[in-house]
Every structure is written in C-alpha cells, then in structure tokens.
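To illustrate the input format used throughout this study, we show a single complete record. The first block contains the structure-token representation of the backbone; no residue identities are included at this stage. The design step must infer an amino acid for every position from geometry alone.
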C-alpha cells in the first residue's frame, strides 16, 4: 500500500487532542473524540491493506498477524512492565495487585472487559485513577483485528460484490447496538465493547473500499470535504464533553469528520493535505501509537506521586505530560521501530518479543501473589462495616460470593440472618420495631445511605419507630431517576428494574405518608454540575411534598484523593515507619469543592422548602488545614476512600438522632 503522509498528520492532530484532554478536560473538553478518529483511521488502513493483498492474491494470515504482533506488542509490553514496576514501588500492595491484574487482561487483548466490570464509566473517578484505562481502545482494535480479516477473506472469495453490502449491514447493526445500549441506559457497555464500537472501524473500512472502487475525489470536492471535515472535528474537540450521551448518535460527528478528512487528503494536494504532510506533524503522527501508550500512565502516576508528597497537582500533570511525550518518542525510536522490521533477523526480533511477554506475565503473577497486609504496624482496631444488610437489591448469598471487595480486603463485614434479593419490590427492608402500621422513617439512596443504616436502625429501635430502607449499592438512586445510572440494573439485567424501582418507591411514599425521608448518596458521582443536583432536588421535593412531613438531605463526607481503588490503611502504613509515628496528612480529592457547593445549594433551598433539612456530617471529618480526619487513636473512620466504617458513621449519630426526633415527635 502506498504511504500517505497526510494520514500520519491526521494521527498527530488526534493524539494531541487526546493528550490535551487527558491533561485537563477543561482545556479541550472533546479531545477524547480523537480516539474515534483513530478508530476510523484503523478501519481504513487495515481494510486497504487486506484488499490490496487480496487483489494481488498475496494475503497471508500468518504474515498479517505477525506484522500486528511486531507493530503493537513490543511497546505495549514495555509500557505494561513499566506501569507494574512503578506501581510496585510507589503504590500500596492492593493497588499494585490490581494494576498487575489489569496488565494481564491488557496483554490478553481484553482490557475493555476488565474496565467495564471493575472501573466503571470512562469519566468516573475509578477509571480516571487507573494508569491502564486508556487501553480499552487498544483492546477494541485488537479484537477487531482478530475477526475482521477472516470475514474479509471469506467474503472476498465467496462473493466479492457482497463485501461492501455485508460490511455496511454490519456497521449499521453495530451502530444500532450502540444506540440501543444508550437508550436503555447502559453507557459503559456502549462505550467499552466492540459490538457497539465496531461500526466506527467498519466505517473506515467502507471508506477504503469506496475509494478503491471509485478513486479519489476531484480537487474542488476534496477541498470542500476537507474543510467541512476539519470544522466538524474542531467542533467535536472544543464543544463535546461528558455531559453528552456518548457514544450514541453524537458519535456520528467525529466519525463523519474523520471520513471527510481522509477522503479529502487521499491522493490530493490541498492545503489541508500539505499542512498534514509537514515534517513535524508527520513525525508526531508516526509516534502517535507510542505517545498514546505512554502519556496516560505518566499523567496518572504523576498525580499519585503528587498526592503522596502534597505537590501542586497542576505541576504534576504537566510533568506527567512531559514524561509521557518523552517516553513516547524514545520507545518509538528504540523499541517500536527496530522490532517492527521484517527483514533479516526477524526470528530474533520475535524472540525478543516473546521474552518480553514472559517478563510481563511474570511481573503480573508476582504482583498478584504478594501477601496483603494493610495495617503492617498494627496501630488500628479492626475496621467494621455493617452496611450490607441494608442493600435491598443484593442478597446475603451474593455478598458471600463477592467476599470483601478488592481494596477493602481487611474490612470485617459481620454476617446477619439471611435476606433475599430484590427486597425493594416488596417495599424495601421494613423494620416495624414492634409498632403496627407503615414506616415513619424511610431511607433512600445508595451505599452512602446504607452506611448510616445501622445508626438510623438503632435510633428508630430506641424510639419505637417503624423504619424502611430502599437503598441499593452500586447506583445513584436518591432521586426518582435511577435510569440515569445503568449500574443499577447491572450489565446483564433488564433496565426495566430501574423504572420499577422508582415506581415502587414513589408508590410506597404516597401510601405510607412517612414523617421523615432521609436522602444519602454519593452526590459528586450523580453529576459534575451542582445545578443538576439542585434541580433534581427541587423536583423531588415537589413530588414528595404532599406525602412527607420532613426531607433530610445528607451531605457527602470528604473523599480521599486516591480514589476507591486505594486501601487507606495501606497508605497510612506506607507513610509511617512505626505505630508511634504521627498520622500522615491525607487531603480530599479534586471534587471536594463540588461536594461543598452541592451541600450549600441544598441549604439555600431550605428557605424555599421549609420541610427540608440539611445534615452536614462532612464537617465532622475536616481538620483545620482542610485535610481529612480519617482516624483518631486506634479508631479508623473510613472503610475506603469515600465510605465511612461503623466507627465513622457513629460520629453522625447526634445529628441523625436530632432530625429523627424532631420529625417524629
């Protein structure tokens, strides 16, 4: 296939957009759509290569996959080994173990499945704190490379005229799957999986076949297509952000812009083609794969190091970008370029790749086999979390199978009597406390409502008040809008459950007419816009106002900067030499201001809605310097980065007792 410099230039534009967005989304909100440009380009190039070889009757599966191995694997192995080595040095063992496991999934071309099941949404805190999150797109492309060549060869040999119609039908089917997943509120599946993303690569393939059959556009049409495509991509980079339903119909924009640009620069000498063919631009484009591999781990690890040493986060991000760019060019020059050659000594190069694979596998195995001890100095009492019985979605048997969640392996979960799954269908977890009649206190929300369950349960028992819990973990369900969070239904359940959940809660509130409804959720994960939460709260208060005497909004406690994939006892142990050392200072994450603003907006709503009360347990966990009060003496107040342990929730007993007493006189 004839080399096309402008395509490398388009790669350069895309990787720059991705890096800028990953450094700070505020700088280029839609820069993440550069990945969609890569998808279209990959489909275009791979289809062109296969069609050219089939036309000449020189296509070889062995040669095709060997070239993919030489092109993609060496640099990837270096990046994985580097991430695991740095994780083993600077991160707690549980976190390093997860990175090692993620590296194994990445090596097996299944990183997108690992991220989908374990890290959640692309813009979520967990995904943003993992150094291998960016490998989801590599997994999609590599999975595409496994199936697409076989399909092309079979179609070409069976009925060549059917190639384009079949690929077009497959592309439309994939787009349909993507839109269906978005409409049923499964954005994570739509974002990470090949069936819902394959249409972007197939669009590039269809473009390649179309150009092959019809030839390049006339010059005047090339110019128009080029400028329209450039304008579309520029608008995507600047104006799209995580608030859009992405992927979905909106993804047609970057795909269309990419296709128009490729169509414009193919075999033409327009101004855009000349710009994209400039030597510096082409140099960045040639190293784009390496830059993509290295920039994100360097940014994430720089943030982690900055958090540990209390450096300025802005400087850390810039240092991470610089390190990522430097590593990208170095590994492109000294690893990727030499090992992708096909001439003499090719067997030796493949031997080096095999040796690197063994090193990566051994490193992953070592990280996963290291013993885990969180509190190595024995300075804290056992951390207890009694929240699980208040989950009205999962059963005790499900929790037994799950065991302690990865980063809370040292937390004790006391087992109680059996409870069934989906108790919410029958009105939730209803505790009559010896009183006939409907519940007078109702708790709504997520695991953040569950973590206060023991305290609310005890206070209601002491006062002889019937209480009901309609709380579920793994979703943001405080308001009557569970459909905005696909995690409620899980990847394999019907999203009808989420609608039914909202209907059941509204029906029981109308029937019970409780004295008090307590709302507790992870508000900073519901939305990144405080005004969205405020508007939802207004809507909620208008709906339940005629049926509820008092509504209590529970502000979210500060969350640790390390994210929910870090064990805080490990962090503390790593920063202290003995049990007598002072506790290290731990600061809240970047969403701390967002959480405070949400709580302040709720307090302002009290003037408009007199039956609203705002509880501020967050104030109990701040120290004077703004750091988190996460422990005192031998007592540890946090289970993980944002959930309180039993000892931590106990600190909020006073304010919960007061609001229950006032509402239920």
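Output of the design step:
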């Amino acid at each position: 296939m004839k080399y096309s410099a402008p395509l490398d230039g388009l790669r350069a534009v895309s990787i720059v957009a991705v890096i800028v967005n990953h450094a700070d989304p505020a700088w280029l909100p839609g820069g993440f759509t550069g990945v969609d440009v890569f998808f279209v380009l990959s489909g275009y190039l791979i289809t062109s290569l296969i069609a050219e070889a089939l036309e000449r009757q020189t296509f070889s599966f062995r040669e095709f996959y060997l070239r993919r191995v030489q092109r993609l694997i060496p640099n990837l192995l270096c990046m994985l080994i580097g991430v695991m080595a740095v994780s083993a040095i600077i991160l707690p063992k549980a976190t390093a173990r997860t990175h090692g496991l993620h590296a194994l999934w990445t090596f097996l071309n299944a990183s997108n499945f690992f991220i989908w099941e374990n890290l959640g949404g692309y813009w979520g805190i967990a995904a943003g704190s993992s150094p291998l999150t960016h490998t989801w797109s590599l997994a999609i492309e590599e999975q595409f490379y496994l199936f697409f060549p076989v399909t092309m060869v079979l179609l070409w040999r069976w009925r060549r005229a059917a190639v384009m119609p079949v690929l077009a039908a497959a592309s439309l089917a994939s787009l349909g799957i993507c839109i269906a997943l978005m409409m049923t509120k499964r954005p994570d599946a739509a974002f990470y999986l090949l069936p819902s993303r394959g249409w972007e690569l197939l669009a590039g393939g269809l473009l390649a076949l179309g150009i092959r059959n019809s030839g390049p556009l006339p010059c005047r049409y090339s110019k128009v297509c080029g400028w329209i495509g450039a304008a579309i991509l520029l608008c995507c980079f600047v104006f799209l952000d995580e608030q859009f339903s992405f992927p979905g119909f909106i993804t047609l924009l970057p795909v269309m812009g990419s296709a128009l640009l490729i169509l414009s620069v193919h075999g033409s000498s327009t101004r855009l083609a000349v710009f994209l063919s400039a030597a510096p631009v082409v140099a960045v484009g040639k190293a784009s794969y390496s830059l993509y591999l290295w920039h994100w781990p360097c940014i994430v690890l720089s943030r982690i190091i900055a958090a540990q040493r209390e450096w300025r986060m802005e400087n850390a991000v810039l240092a991470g970008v610089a390190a990522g760019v430097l590593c990208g060019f170095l590994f492109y020059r000294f690893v990727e370029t030499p090992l992708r050659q096909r001439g003499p000594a090719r067997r030796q190069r493949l031997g080096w790749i095999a040796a690197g694979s063994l090193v990566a596998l051994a490193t992953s195995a070592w990280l996963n086999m290291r013993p885990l001890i969180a509190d190595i100095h024995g300075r804290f009492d056992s951390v207890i979390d009694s929240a699980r019985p208040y989950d009205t979605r999962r059963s005790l048997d499900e929790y037994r199978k799950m065991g302690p969640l990865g980063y809370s392996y040292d937390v004790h979960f006391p087992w109680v009597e059996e409870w069934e799954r989906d108790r919410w269908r029958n009105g939730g977890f209803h505790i009559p406390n010896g009183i006939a009649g409907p519940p007078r206190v109702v708790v709504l929300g997520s695991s953040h409502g569950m973590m206060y369950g023991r305290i609310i349960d005890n206070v209601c028992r002491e006062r002889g008040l019937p209480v009901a819990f309609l709380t579920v973990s793994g979703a943001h369900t405080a308001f009557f809008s569970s459909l905005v969070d696909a995690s409620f239904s899980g990847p394999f359940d019907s999203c009808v459950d989420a609608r039914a959940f909202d209907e059941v809660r509204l029906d029981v509130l109308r029937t019970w007419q409780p004295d008090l409804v307590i709302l507790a959720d992870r508000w900073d994960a519901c939305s990144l816009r405080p005004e969205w939460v405020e508007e939802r709260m207004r809507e909620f208060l208008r709906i339940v106002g005629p049926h509820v005497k008092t509504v209590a909004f529970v502000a979210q406690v500060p969350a640790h900067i390390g994210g929910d994939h870090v064990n805080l006892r490990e962090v503390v142990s790593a920063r202290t030499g003995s049990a007598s050392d002072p506790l290290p200072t731990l600061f809240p994450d970047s969403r701390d201001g967002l959480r405070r603003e949400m709580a302040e907006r709720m307090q302002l709503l009290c003037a408009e809605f007199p039956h609203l009360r705002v509880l501020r347990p967050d104030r109990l966990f701040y120290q004077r310097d703004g750091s988190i009060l996460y422990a005192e003496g031998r007592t540890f107040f946090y289970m993980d980065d944002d959930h309180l342990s039993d000892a931590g929730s106990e600190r909020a007993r006073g304010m919960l007792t007061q609001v229950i007493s006032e509402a239920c006189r």
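Structural context for interpreting the output: Residues 8-369 form one domain. The CA atoms of residues 201 and 531 lie 37 Å apart.
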